[in-house]
Amino acid sequence: MSYAMDMQNYTTQSETATSEPKIMARDVNVFYGPSQALKSIQLDIGANEVTSLIGPSGCGKSTFLRCLNRMNDVIENCTVEGRISLDGVDLYNSGLDPVLLRARVGMVFQKPNPFPKSIFDNIAYGPRLHGTVSNKDELDERVEKSLRRAGLWDEVKDRLDKPGTGLSGGQQQRLCIARAIAINPEVILMDEPCSALDPIATAKIEELIDELRERFTIVIVTHSMQQAARVSQKTAFFHLGELVEVGETDRLFTSPQDDRTQGYITGRFG
Amino acid sequence: MPDTKDHIVSSFDKELRIIHEIIIRMGGMAENQLSESVDALVQRDSAKAELVRKEDAKIDALEEELEAAVIQLIALRQPVANDLRAVIAAFKISSDLERIGDYAKNIAKRSIAINQMPPQKSVTSIMRMSRLVQEIVKDTLDAFSNNDKDRAIDVWHRDEEVDEMYTSLFRELLTYMMEDPRNIGACTHMLFIAKNIERMGDHATNIAETIYYLSTGERIEGKRPKGDRTAFQILTPDDGEGEVEI
After folding, report:
1. Residues 185-224, chain B, touching A (beta carbon < 8 A)
2. Is the ipTM here above 0.90?
3. Fewer Cβ neighbours under 10 Å: the N or C end of chain B?
4. List of chain B residues whose C-beta atoms are within 8 Å of the C-beta of residue A268
């Protein structure tokens, strides 16, 4: 009984903490040509929280993630309806520059994709492009800080001029995370950031995600339910373009409310 | 499992089924041990009591088997949601059933001792109380095999009746002891037997709570029913009623 009460308090507290969501999605419909990929999605993403999006392939979770920094703009015949806002500002209908938006909402992809440049230049690229540093010292400092935050500094500090592509897979992925945080974004989107990595590299990224949460809001798409359980505070389950269930991660993995969620996370789907 | 759909990986279902079956078997054995131990007391049958003592090892062995199966399943399958609740529930229920078995064994031991003494009047009350607990244990196990949360709630409420019977037996035994100090030895054994049966009821209540959690993912709401007031009773030979509530 006291457990149930604690849980209630816990929920209330965290709801208070996230009463002003960082990102709000309302009635979001996405179409690829005539086919509908997302159906009337309502989702709040709390600041300084990790929200994981799970669901079977083709359920729309990556599509939703890509709506959050307008990556879908570059896909021909993709239409996004409804309202998505970042700190209350509409992403699609307020004349917001998508390039500036992507500086605030960074992204890390499934396969590490460092630029074919030196490790230093990989990190320096964003700050230079956006002109957020005024001199070489500041740039050096920014590169070091980003690499430190990504837990990569000690491993690469003696070879900053070597190509980023020469690093191991896990290091490359942390390099991409360092590159994403170098421009001081507010939100980091991760699309299966560990699916190409071994368990040790995965653990390092997960540890990093937990640390980054203090400064950034993180949304992660993952096929590994254990990973969602390990790294996120909120989990959202998508199925056939619908958002079936969203809730505290610990609740969703112990007592999901919807049969479809239960079927999926327990491996019964059919 | 009384559960919805099968897993994509069928060996997972097989392992869950094995765990479920062990609990059913343990439950059947614990239930049987309880009734046999009280029969041994009522029929003054020391051979039967001896058998109950020996049989307890089988329940213990099943508990170990279940623990191993649960640990293996958690390590290899990382169950979540209702699967996680099923294995955790099985783990908890097995330890409750093992305790019920231990209490039956203790009743058997005491009945061997009591059989050396003159027949006890309080046997009738013990029998009545044990019949109620047997029913409760049986209903609890039925609730488990059918994943029936309503039945679990029903059982949960019935423990109060057991506690009340225990309180009244406590008074009855004290009266016999005050009547004739030569009764004290046998009555003390009877009192322990009554307490054992009352504790079995508590374990059945635990199991009912676990079944409710297994089925719903939530705790039973409300305060646990409690009817055992013996902790607050003082008896003195002087006053007529023989009882003061404080």
Report:
1. 216-224
2. no
3. C
4. 4-8
Distance in Å, alpha carbon of B159 to nearest chain A alpha carbon: 17
Question: Three-class SS of residue A132?
Answer: coil
Residues 6+ apart with CB under 8 A from B179: none
The verdict on residue A91 lying in a domain is: yes
Considering only the beta carbons, identify the residue of B5, B81, B220 that sits closest to A254: B81
Q: Cα separation of B199 and B228, whole Å? A: 11
Does 1.25.40.80 match the CATH number of domain B10-226?
Answer: no
Beta strands in A110-222 (DSSP E): 187-191, 217-221
Q: What is the DSSP string of chain B?
A: ---SSPPSSHHHHHHHHHHHHHHHHHHHHHHHHHHHHHHHHHTT-HHHHHHHHHHHHHHHHHHHHHHHHHHHHHHHH---HHHHHHHHHHHHHHHHHHHHHHHHHHHHHHHHHHTTS---TTHHHHHHHHHHHHHHHHHHHHHHHTT-HHHHHHHHHHHHHHHHHHHHHHHHHHHHHHH-GGGHHHHHHHHHHHHHHHHHHHHHHHHHHHHHHHHHSSPPPSPPP----GGGEE--SSSSS--EE-
Chain A CB contacts of B221 under 8 Å are 1, 4
Residue A132, domain extent? 21-265
pLDDT band at B236 (very low <50, low <70, confident <90, very high): low
Beta bridge partners of residue A237, listed in sequence order: A54, A245
Element (DSSP H or E) covering residue A247: strand A242-248
The secondary structure element, H or E, covering residue A88 is none
Domain of residue A154, CATH code: 3.40.50.300
Q: Is residue A220 part of a domain?
A: yes
Query: Using CA atoms, how far apart are residues A177 and A237, in angstroms rounded to an integer?
Result: 25
Number of domains in chain A: 1
